[in-house]
Every structure is written in structure tokens, then in C-alpha cells.
Design a protein that fits this description.
Elements lengths: L1 E7 L5 E7 L8 E8 L6 E6 L4 E7 L3 H32 L1
Antiparallel strand pairs: 1-2, 2-3, 3-4, 4-5
């Protein structure tokens, strides 16, 4: 199950966290989070171990658009991982 939550840090900035629990309700983890730039409403900074992103810049029209873009990046990342593993398995089995 995925869920977006908003948390404020010690500076009062709103961080939007994407929480995901693939197996059990109590086993959720933050897989991505972002904050809107204070000077530019269309600039967002995000972090995600899953995407190897640390304070990367994302351009979006709104907070909802930023959420959608991050979810799409995660989906593409996982699809690429699956393809890589399937290719690796195929190569291993052929030799």
C-alpha cells in the first residue's frame, strides 16, 4: 500500500513523504520525499534511496504533479530492474 504524508521539519518546511508497505501494514518505509522550493513554486527537491537521489531537482506545475512524477520515476526504475534481472537470469541459464 502506498500513501503520501506531509511532515514538517525543524525549519517548518513541509516535506511530502511517499510511504510504501509492500507486504504488511506495519512494515511501511519512506521510499521518496520532497519539499517545494521557497523561491520558485515549480521547483521541488527530492530524495530517494530507491532512485539514488539526494536533493535532486524536479520541475512540476504543482505538488500533485510532483507526486505523480516521482511515482512514475519509481515505476520506471522498478521496471528497469526487472528487465535487468530477467536478462541476467536468461544469460545465466544459457551458459
Amino acid at each position: 500500500m502506498k500513501e503520501w504524508k506531509v511532515k514538517k521539519n525543524e525549519f517548518g518546511e513541509e516535506w511530502h513523504e511517499l510511504r510504501f508497505s509492500p507486504f504488511y501494514e506495519d512494515d511501511d518505509e519512506v521510499i521518496a520525499s520532497f519539499v517545494q522550493d521557497e523561491m520558485d513554486d515549480e521547483a521541488f527537491y527530492y530524495i530517494s534511496k530507491e532512485l539514488s537521489a539526494d536533493d535532486d531537482l524536479l520541475w512540476a506545475d504543482s505538488i500533485d504533479d510532483a507526486k505523480q512524477q516521482i511515482e512514475e520515476m519509481l515505476i520506471e526504475h522498478w521496471k528497469d530492474e526487472i528487465e535487468y534481472l530477467e536478462d541476467r537470469l536468461k544469460e545465466f541459464q544459457e551458459k
